[in-house]
Write a structure and sequence with these properties.
By secondary structure, the protein is α+β, with helices and mostly antiparallel strands. 36% of the residues lie in helices and 13% in strands. The protein is built from 4 helices and 4 strands. Strands 1-2 form a two-stranded antiparallel sheet. The relative contact order is 0.08. InterPro entries: tRNA_methyltr_O, Znf_DskA_TraR. One of its GO terms (molecular function) is zinc ion binding. Pfam families: zf-dskA_traR.
Length: 94
């Protein structure tokens, strides 16, 4: 019935029945004891390895810090990727 209601295929009677059912489900969730709705337990997780941290350098064009491994060289200076992409090497516009 849910598919018919959500798909716009349900009759008015089906829509009403579905609405009443949804209201009953909602009331049950709101009034049920916590133990019936929630399950809390300790779980074991395999954590991923710690991320490598890289030194930051300052972009010579916009002043923003950028990870050293992400920095590019533009005109002999460190540049962040957006500023490095603006570099035209003398061809076309900046």
């Amino acid at each position: 019935m849910r598919a018919r209601v959500l798909g716009g295929q349900a009759t008015p009677a089906e829509k009403e029945t579905y609405g009443r059912y949804q209201e009953q489900r909602l009331q049950h969730i709101l009034e049920a004891p916590e133990e019936e709705i929630f399950k809390a337990e300790h779980v074991e997780l395999a954590l991923p390895p710690k991320a490598r941290l890289f030194n930051s350098v300052t972009c010579s064009f916009c002043g923003e810090p950028v990870a050293e491994v992400r920095a590019r060289v533009r005109e002999g200076c460190f540049a962040c990727i957006p500023c490095a992409e603006k570099y035209s090497r003398g061809w076309g516009e900046d």
